[in-house]
Amino acid sequence: LGWSRSMIPENTDNSVPARKLERQLYGLILVALVLLALFFALSRSVGLLGEFELPKQVDARYFFGAIACQLVFLAVAGRAWQQAISIYSDVKLPLLQSVGQISLVLIGKYIPGKVWGFIIRGKDLTNRGVSGHQMLMSNYAEQLVSIHAGLVFGGCGWLLSTEPDYWEVIFPLLLFSVFLAPVLNNRFALYVVRLLKLVFKNAHVQDCKIPYSAYLRLFFLYLLEWVFIGAILLCLYLMVFEGGAHTSAVLYIPSMNSLAFIVGFFAFFSPAGLGVRDGVLVALLNPVTGLTEAVYIAVLFRFWLVIVEALVGLCAVNMLITGTRSSQ
């Protein structure tokens, strides 16, 4: 993208129309790729759901509960990204724009490689005055704290719902990691800088540190994200299998969802963790729900996410394109 943009002359009369046409072309290519990837994910989910017998009764209350949790999740995710940007940049990102950028990442992960959403979000941030280094460090803080919060939430949920013999030892360690992680991150910032200097020659150790209070605020926001994305899965489960739910499942299902998400995140070869995340979720839910219910709810949850992320992602792409046109 940078090479093709450099080929467009900047000091000619037709530079503005050329750039406008270029951005429209990129937008169309992006939408086409995303629609193709989403069609593959959706058709796979529908095909898997077709292999199961649909439940005779569905509790609509939990369906609307899932919608409410989804809306709260998007709002919290937007606020968390605002916080991550504010650590390294003075740019004030409106909440709606922040949610839009999160949606770009969500929809971009369906294209193989998983980096396209970050590239598109980076382009939008560049237009708002955020430098490449600031952008990279904000992404670093986002991914680091989000994974940490997911591990703590998943680990604590598993310990409290299953109560193994050694849970009294592991549980305090997980809680202690919340306060230890920012110290360790800042201590090892020097090694992060060495990697950054391969791209940004002027990177400094101080630029890579996350202030202690900022880390804790980010952790709390991402912890809320994991709670609400897990609550969506729980609502879908109760919507279909309300009679099979019990107290331990209410805590176990959302916490296992966060662990499955993290495993799927590291499956770089799989768009949006297709197959990997779902298989891990089935394996983790099987001891509590049984294999049939675990497979059904994993496929239903994937179907839900594909639909939601397609809607919010395409709205974000449209907002990005129309916003670029308005600025021109």
What distinguishing features does this structure have?
13 helices, mainly alpha, disordered C terminus, 328 residues
Structural class designation: mainly alpha
Radius of gyration: 21 Å
Average predicted local confidence, pLDDT: 77
Number of distinct beta strands: 0
Question: Which parts are unreliable, with pLDDT below 50 for 5 consecutive residues or more?
Answer: 1-16, 324-328
- Largest sheet entry: none
Question: Helix share of residues?
Answer: over 70%
- What share of the residues does DSSP label as strand, in percent? under 5%
Order of helices and strands: HHHHHHHHHHHHH
Oligomer: single chain
Tell the overall outline: globular
How many DSSP helices? 13
Straight-line distance between termini = 19 Å
Task: Describe the 3D structure.
Helix 6 (132-162) runs antiparallel to helix 7 (167-187) and helix 6 packs antiparallel against helix 11 (247-265). This protein is an all-alpha fold and 328 residues long. Mean pLDDT is 77; it is low at 1-16 and 324-328. The chain has 13 helices and no strands. The chain starts with a helix and ends with a helix. It has helices at 2-6, 15-49, 60-88, 95-108, 116-127, 132-162, 167-187, 189-196, 205-208, 212-241, 247-265, 276-289, 291-327. The longest helix is centred in the last third of the chain and has 37 residues, at 291-327.
What's a quick, concise take on this entry?
The chain is built from 13 helices and no strands. The model is unreliable at 1-16 and 324-328 (pLDDT under 50).
